[in-house]
Amino acid sequence: xKELSLNILDIAQNSIHAEATIVRIILTExxxxxKLEIEDDGKGMSEEFLARVTDPFSTTRKTRKxxxxxxxLKLAAEQTGGHMTISSxxxxxxxDHHGTEVAALFYKNHLDFTPLGDxxxxxxxxxxxSPDVDFVFVHEMPDRTVExxxxxxxxxxxxxxxxxxxxxxxxxxxxxxxxYGTGD
Amino acid sequence: MKSLExxxxxxxRMQNKVVLREGGADKRIVVGMATCGIAxxxxxxxxxFVEEIANRGLTGAVEVSQxxxxxxxxxxxxxEVFEGDQRVTYVHVDPVKAREIVARHIVGxxxxxxxxxxxxxx
Lengths: 184, 122
Prior knowledge:
The structure holds 2 protein chains of 2 kinds.
Chain A: H1 4-17, E1 22-29, E2 33-40, H2 47-51, H3 69-78, E3 83-89, E4 99-107, H4 119-129, E5 134-140, E6 145-149, H5 150-157, H6 166-180
Parallel strand pairs in A: 1-5
Antiparallel strand pairs in A: 1-2, 2-4, 3-4, 5-6
Chain B: H1 4-15, E1 27-32, H2 35-40, H3 42-55, E2 62-67, E3 79-83, E4 86-90, H4 95-107, H5 117-120
Parallel strand pairs in B: 1-2
Antiparallel strand pairs in B: 1-3, 3-4
Helix pairs in contact in B: 3-4
């Protein structure tokens, strides 16, 4: 992937396939590191599947929904000296707190760090594709924090207006663009 | 700072229009957004379709949606256009081609043969 934000889009799709109702994407940046956390309340993975989920060559047809996405994210983190971890609780075993968390740490000054890229387009694409799923996006940087919570938007818009409406998508894009600030 | 007041204005504007719900669209544009599609550049293609359909006032008449891997990764970004029983599969789509597909196929009614999988396989 040319941008980390494309990995984020890809991994968040796994949460959507796992029937999550809410997906949290949390980015925490310091001058040296970038931490990415993607958390969902989807159906989770079995321990057995979790153990081999980052091995691209053990993926079977039945499980191909996961495919190469996690191995690519793991590689992107490890090639900067960082790492990736996954935890998950299956719905059958943990009916009250099922879901999956993927966390990856990147060292930004490493030569092989993939830039974050257009994370705004990633958020807009996710909302466009899954307007019934809620997304919480937080990007904490040393000098500012960018946030979006689609539950707040839904509250204002009511049930009749889908989050994937073009005007709403434009609002989301502009809101995030403004928060990031232009020209710096 | 974008305010929630602006969202309220969007809501009021939209409530005054007849909102076509899912399934009401007679044309469907489906963009492959699995790992293979995303790596090949599907995200800007999706956004180009969404923008172009909105700018031309075709929201409601044309639905833009996302799908997973259809097993032809080497042709990604792949875009399928559905209209009635007809399906046209476009391959190696980029944002420029996406806007052209809207203009010539969606609006003009003529599929762009040279961008289809049939042409790419020759």
